């Protein structure tokens, strides 16, 4: 079993501003987003690095939004970029898991609950 854990954190003085952590195991990836998920995080070099790592993963990508305190339209754009990068390979999907109430509400209001899979990839 090969497990690769690489953490990518926004270089902010307080971690509550926003962080992206990626974990890879058996080709699948988990991306955990914590704190404020806005353009400062989504379109930072750290956000780009997470997208690139996910595009090279061979399995499904799970996005854990359980600790997102704030999410804006730029975060939605980042999630769509992630989905587009992953779904170019047939059979792969982006699965959103454990969205915080605020993140879930943002995804519902923008219609993204119909775009992303929730809980299972089947």
> Which range best describes the helical content: under 10%, 10-25%, 25-40%, 40-55%, 55-70% or over 70%?
25-40%
The DSSP helix count reads 4
Q: By helix and strand content, what is the structural category?
A: alpha/beta
CATH third-tier fold name: Transcription Regulator spoIIAA
Arrangement of strands in the largest sheet: 1-2-3-4-5-6
Give the CATH class: Alpha Beta
User: What Rg, in angstroms, do the CA atoms define?
Assistant: 13 Å
Strand content: 25-35%
* Average of per-residue pLDDT values: 82
Count of the domains: 1
**CATH architecture assignment name:** 2-Layer Sandwich
* SSE order: EEEHHEHEHE
How many strand elements? 6
Distance between the termini: 24 Å
Biggest pleated-sheet summary? 6 strands, mixed
Name the CATH superfamily assignment: STAS domain
Q: Name the poorly predicted regions.
A: 1-5, 8-16
Shape estimate: globular
Explain how this protein is built.
There is one protein chain. By secondary structure, the chain is α/β, with parallel strands linked by helices. The chain has a single domain (3-90), classed as 2-Layer Sandwich (Transcription Regulator spoIIAA). It has 4 helices and 6 strands. It has helices spanning 39-42, 45-56, 73-86, 101-109, and strands at residues 3-9, 18-25, 28-37, 61-71, 94-97, 117-118. It has a 6-stranded mixed β-sheet, sandwiched between helices. Strand 5 (94-97), helix 4 (101-109) and strand 6 form a beta-alpha-beta unit. Helix 2 (45-56) packs parallel to helix 3 (73-86). The chain is globular and about 30 Å long.
